[in-house]
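User: Reviewer 2 asked us to show a designed sequence for the structure in our supplementary figure. I'm pasting the structure tokens here. Could you produce the per-position amino acids so we can include them in the response letter?
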């Protein structure tokens, strides 16, 4: 039984890592920041994969202990200065919970997004010094810091190494990372071309590859975008008129590629009406994210013969030789009120956690994300009562 369980975990991990590394089935996450009329920031992200991972909602109180291990270096041990709520995936070997998304009690948020071109710096760190494994950036950031500026300063001192997701050095961690704080500042951390790169992100948007700087350059191709409908035009005395509104979005990319989603996310986050209240802002953010929600089957991919996803990823109905990437969950975060909402794939509604209330909890709480599907109950109480 234990051997079967280990095989299942290995296949799941291989599927997770492989699906992120192969461009045709890469994880299609979208992260953005929306600001209300007062400038208060609200963060969101979607998570897409061709299968469901064993996601767990995890709350860690202040004082929790963590460890990060990079090969050939001492273990980096650290204690949480801040409590945080996160969506995690268990490591297939150590069973440690790896943060894919989260927010701490200071309104600092962290997101993992796929980045297949990851190429970390060579290990030039003194072997007697502890290094942080990049896969543990989420736990480190959320437990230690309260702002983007603090993270930037710490990254200039703490060595970070890109480690493997699987034993024997297989599948180097194929991610980049985006961070937002309660003051509305954003940061992108990438490992590209053998270097660690830390970018300020004034537009607050991130998707997947290419590198962040490429996405910013590509926006120069969209200077014509505007949310004002140009619904009438006269040519050679002929009056041309649109029968309805909406022509302003005609220039937006229509595909679900990383490049297309980046441009659309910039447009929607910038042009959506600025809310007057936090509740209205969250409603607006939920409507924005509906534009990035992918139902199963909307685009399909050929299976790769002999690869792990053939055995793990579910087929598309009536198409057994294909898999489909879809939105597993969407999260919304009010970075000032410390409220974190998530909508699992099998749910129509979001459930909301109040971190201001959870921070009084003195024990770690962990519960499968699936426990929160199709429920309207108090998410805090569900997490407290059912978690182990």
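Assistant: Here is a per-position design you can include in the supplement:
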């Amino acid at each position: 039984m234990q051997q079967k369980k280990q095989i299942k975990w290995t296949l799941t991990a291989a599927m997770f890592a492989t699906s992120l590394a192969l461009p045709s089935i890469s994880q299609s996450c979208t992260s953005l920041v929306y600001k209300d009329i007062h400038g208060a920031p609200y963060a969101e992200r979607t998570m897409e994969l061709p299968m469901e991972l064993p996601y767990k909602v995890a709350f860690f109180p202040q004082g929790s202990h963590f460890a990060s291990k990079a090969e050939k270096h001492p273990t980096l041990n650290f204690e949480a200065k801040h409590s945080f709520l996160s969506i995690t995936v268990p490591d297939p070997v150590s069973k440690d919970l790896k943060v894919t998304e989260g927010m701490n009690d200071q309104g600092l948020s962290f997101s993992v997004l796929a980045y297949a071109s990851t190429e970390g710096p060579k290990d030039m760190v003194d072997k007697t010094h502890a290094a942080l494994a990049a896969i543990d950036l989420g736990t480190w950031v959320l437990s230690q810091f309260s702002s983007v500026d603090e993270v930037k300063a710490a990254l200039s001192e703490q060595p970070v190494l890109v480690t493997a997701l699987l034993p024997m050095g297989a599948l180097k961690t194929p991610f980049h990372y985006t961070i937002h704080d309660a003051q509305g500042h954003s940061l992108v951390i990438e490992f590209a071309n053998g270097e660690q790169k830390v970018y300020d992100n004034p537009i607050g948007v991130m998707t997947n590859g290419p590198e962040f700087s490429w996405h910013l350059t590509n926006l120069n191709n969209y200077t014509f975008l505007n949310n004002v409908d140009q619904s009438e035009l006269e040519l050679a005395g002929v009056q041309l008129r649109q029968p309805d509104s909406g022509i302003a979005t005609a220039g937006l990319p229509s595909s679900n590629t990383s490049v297309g989603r980046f441009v659309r996310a910039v447009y929607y986050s910038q042009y959506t009406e600025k809310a007057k209240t936090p509740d209205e802002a969250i409603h607006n953010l939920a409507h924005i994210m509906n534009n990035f929600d992918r139902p199963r089957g909307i685009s399909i991919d050929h299976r790769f013969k002999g690869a792990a996803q053939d055995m793990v990823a579910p087929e598309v109905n009536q198409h057994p030789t294909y898999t489909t990437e879809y939105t597993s969950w969407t999260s919304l975060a009010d970075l000032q009120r410390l409220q974190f909402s998530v909508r699992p794939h099998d749910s129509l509604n979001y459930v909301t956690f109040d971190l201001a209330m959870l921070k009084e909890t003195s024990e770690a709480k962990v519960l499968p994300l699936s426990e929160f599907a199709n429920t309207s109950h108090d998410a805090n109480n569900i997490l407290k009562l059912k978690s182990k």
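For the response letter, you might also mention the following. The chain has one domain: 2-386. The CA atoms of residues 3 and 43 lie 41 Å apart.
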